[in-house]
Amino acid sequence: MSRAKQSKHVDGEGKKPARRPSRTSLDRKIREQEKELSTLNESRRRRRAAAKDVYNAIGFDAMYKDGICQVEEGLFSQTIAFEDISYQSAREENQQAIFSAYCQLFDYFGAESCVQLSVVNTPIPASEIGRKRFFPTEDADTEQYAREYNRILNDKMREGVSNLVRERYLTFATGAKDVDAAVPKLARMRTDAIQTLNKIRSGARVLDGEERLRAINSVLRPGKPFTFSWGQLGPKSGLRTKDFVCPTSLDFKPEGSGTCYLSEGAWCQVLAFTRFGSELTDRCLADVIDLPMPLNVTLHIQAMDKAKAVAFVKKRLAWMDKEIIDEQMSAVKKGYDFQILPSELKYSKEEAEDLLDHLQNKNQRLFVYTGLVFTWAETRKELDDQVLQIVSTGRRNSIEIGTLDYRQRQGMNSVLPLGHNHVEVSRMMTTAQVAIQMPFATQELAQEGGGYYGQNKQSSNLVLCNRKHLASPMGFVAGKPGSGKSFSVKREIENTILAYPEDEIIILDPAGEYSPVVTGNGGESIRFAPDSGTHLNPFDLSDVAHQSTAAQMAFKIDAFLALSSATMAEGSQGLPEADKSIISRCVELAYARCADEGRLPLLGDFYSILREQPEPEARDIALRYERYVRGALSFFNHESNVTFDKRITNIDFKDLSENMRAFGIVAVLETVRNRMYYNFERGVTTWLYIDEVQSLFGHPAIISYFSKFWAEGRKFNLICTGITQNSVYMLEHEEARNMVLNSDFILLHKQSPVDRKAWVDLMDLSAQEAGYIDESVKAGEGLLIAGGARIPIKDDFPRGSLYDLFNTKPEEIAALKRASGFAENARRRVEAAEPMLGNPVGGVPKRVVATATFIKDARIPWEGTMAELAMAIGCPADDAAILGRELSKHEGYLDGLGISVAKRHTRRGNLIMLDPEGGRSGE
Length: 923
Description:
With 923 residues, the protein is an alpha+beta fold. 44% of the residues lie in helices and 17% in strands. A hairpin with a 5-residue loop joins strand 1 (62-63) and strand 2. The termini are far apart.
């Protein structure tokens, strides 16, 4: 080649320019890429269907420890579990926002991925129902209450309509040459899905390998326990993950039937959604999920490319146009009106045009959709009954559900949370049609390690909430008098005492009503009163000595501004700036002066320094402090003798006057803050309960202090609960509203109309949710808001030792005190009972003698259950049955002493009535 020709060749001269890839070839490559996953899935489905053994019939190859599953060669999936939300009871505008975000969830997934939504109802094992250990019983101080609480909760557990655990899974699968290539693809899909679910306040988490295997086991081996550990795998044992979930046998033609199958003795059946009505509601799926039976509702959803979907619909429209033309030509030939078309053809054309409009103009996507329902039972008859309920419920919601005859193997593999559909029963659906099938039904709350807050008003299942699992565990309990508010708080305190033996609990009790639950559990009740001898120094720094001086001083100054506010009626403007400056200066001077003497300041030192200041305002401030330094109210002017030796402490302010309580509460809050720091350093959570919390929102400086205390406490393992019966007064303040909105725990009982409106506006409650707290509800009923969950609750707590601890009804407390007095008299006189009443004939048991003594002391008729009578005379409640038999056996003895015995059966139970004036001795 000559130089010239070589130059032309190098410069590109003398030859045709390189052809650019045509648009057609690019489209072809895209189509081939989209078809690749579908083609591979089809061949794999055929291979699974032809398997001759159980092991190879199960639809996955391997499970990795991080939760990634190799479904088939070149296909990998991952599963996330997401929480229930209060969709069904939310306001319409909130439902629309949730629906919009839920649509985005499916739009995130492209045509190269497969998506599976599973809602699984798993029965609680029969061995656990009625035998669950909710609270430990090792602590001698609380053993009696823990045993009774466990018994009560197990009894209530049996009342649940379903005794099911409901889980929601989202599984997504993608093609990749190996697991390393699949990891980034799955990570992107996982991140998008979790972020979208978080928008609707549905917490999501990734399932690890063991959790996914457990979910698979619940389908393949229903009702059978799952035992697995990664240490059991390896070349020595020869075991793989699949070995732990494979059933020993699968019979897909039991008794010659092809509509169900047998797995290790359990009768199983997979059903398919075959037809949908023209209009679906957001309850269509929820009503099926709510059925009280073992259930797995699975939706397989695979997106179509937008351009391909539009072309698909246009092609169908073209065929319909051709069919219409043929119909019209046929009508003309026969002399009919050509404008009259078959109704089915006309409707199909309108539906297809509407679908095209949604795809082109309303940002909808098209999905290939398959809906399946799996259920199982111990017998064929039970299975048939469950299937009938499923089909009937589906029809009520415009969903036709049919059997998968001779395709149960494919159905079984399709309901496994693996992201791979083996069933070729599908239809096209838009984003909106898929998203309207909401997986959120009756919301339940059963957090691991949670305390009992009542029963779900709709399902009667236990409501168990673990406040430590909430993002912001701070909270409020509100309700009008008699609504069960105090009972609920005492019950939660007992939950905390029993569930967290290491945590400290402090109660600020202005009405003196929490002492029984504290002292009953081995705690200490401290009373602040002029005659109590209890002292508290607001300047105390004993538990925060490790903190910097500047940090200590800043908070102490805020505390004394709040204390100063509590000594005056400041008005809406708060403390004048001059007063704030003087107080800040004198607090620092008090610490500095007393540091030279090697001691902490007292309130008297602060008072003296105020009097030394030249400003007239300082003398006014000192005058307001004078009553706290001298005289009967000077118990804040001493070194502190309040200790927290017991893990449960109740601070009783009942004997303080109304205008002193705010001062006392702020002073105690400073001590609690010091204790909070100390507990945080040793890894202990501090629980603080403040009754009549609305009293801290009367003065701006106190509000500022309390708001700062509340915000800081979350960082130092403080779980604080404000209790109020005057919500409107509290919620008038912006700081209070912000504190409520930043708290994830709100328990609302019966509210007055004004208070209810305030909560409805602040918490954006729907009409249905507002109905749970109106004046028509019973005591103990209400609405629990815990994070994103909103649960209507009820509580009919049985009588017993715990009920007596929690009870706040004045008439019942008075009756208990009378009974306690009678019991004490009976115990004192039981030994001397026989000489006083005469020598009984035939060896009458001491229980009967004690009963006679009890009634004679009362001098009034007594009526109650046998258990109540046993407790009243000082016998254990467990001896009630023995006492009943002995009374029946020795009625002649009682009658001879002038005591008649009668029995009556009521809804409350079997009552025994004892009348001291009804026997022969009175004749």
